[in-house]
Amino acid sequence: MLLTSSHTVRGDGTRDGDTPGPGAVPALSVRGLTKTYRGGFTAIEALDLDIPDGAFFGLLGPNGAGKTTLIGAVCNLVRLTAGEIRVFGHGHESREARRLVGLAEQEINLDRFLNIGEMLVYHAGYHGIGRREAQRRARELLDLFKLGSKANSRHTELSGGMQRRLLLARALMHRPRLVILDEPTAGVDVELRAEIWRYTRMLNELGATILLTTHYLEEAEALCQEIALLRAGRIVARGSPEALRLQFGVGDLAGVYARAMAAEDGARAAGGPP
Length: 274
Ligand SMILES: Nc1ncnc2c1ncn2[C@@H]1O[C@H](COP(=O)(O)OP(=O)(O)OP(=O)(O)O)[C@@H](O)[C@H]1O
Ligand SMILES: [Mg+2]
Description:
The protein is α/β, with parallel strands linked by helices. The chain is 37% helix and 21% strand.
């Protein structure tokens, strides 16, 4: 829908005056992020990270590295201890930022009282999308994710893989420009994994920025243009898969991962405990 030549309303409802156009600012900009949980454990420490608009970005690291904490901070699920997060230039707590981000969480976290069609419509309503448009999008996404025949089921009646697809559908309902997928392929079968790869590539080609976490290094290698390795709340390596392979002198990302983590262990041992 065109208002004036300089005020085009995009599919996500933002105007040119509100949010800079493609490529003008990073999709995500994190500065000095620290998260200390109640009880005193610091999961993320003074972390800086920029993800360019349009990137397919992989965030890798062992269990407990802080990936979900970082994502939670971006999505206002985790309160920052210190630092600043901007989403396409907007403060992460702003309405604009919330509208620009879609999250498929690591934990399957779905409303047990609504059927899955209603759940999608409800989610869209939360982002200010009218009921009729929301119903149209819900039908479209349920078909895309092969859940059309289950629209009247509750999520408890879906298989685990179907629930993963539903999480993805929900994350896309408000057409976010930054799509965050926290281990979307954990525990899914070969076929669904291939579908998720295809959907996320398609989304990226259509202009969405993707932030993906995964423990499958071959998945990151296949999908991501850029990767950050996180270890104990700090980024220990970052670059394209090719640049990382060159930097660490190895033939694949599994080698990069092993070397980066070993180097970090060595540095810790040399530095000793504080
Ligand atoms: N609510 C919480 N309270 C206290 N500590 C927490 C909380 N949530 C996470 N942590 C701790 O923060 C650290 C980072 O956890 P996080 O879930 O961010 O890791 P992750 O990189 O996503 O790991 P995984 O690969 O297992 O999903 C862990 O040591 C975890 O125990
Ligand atoms: Mg996690």
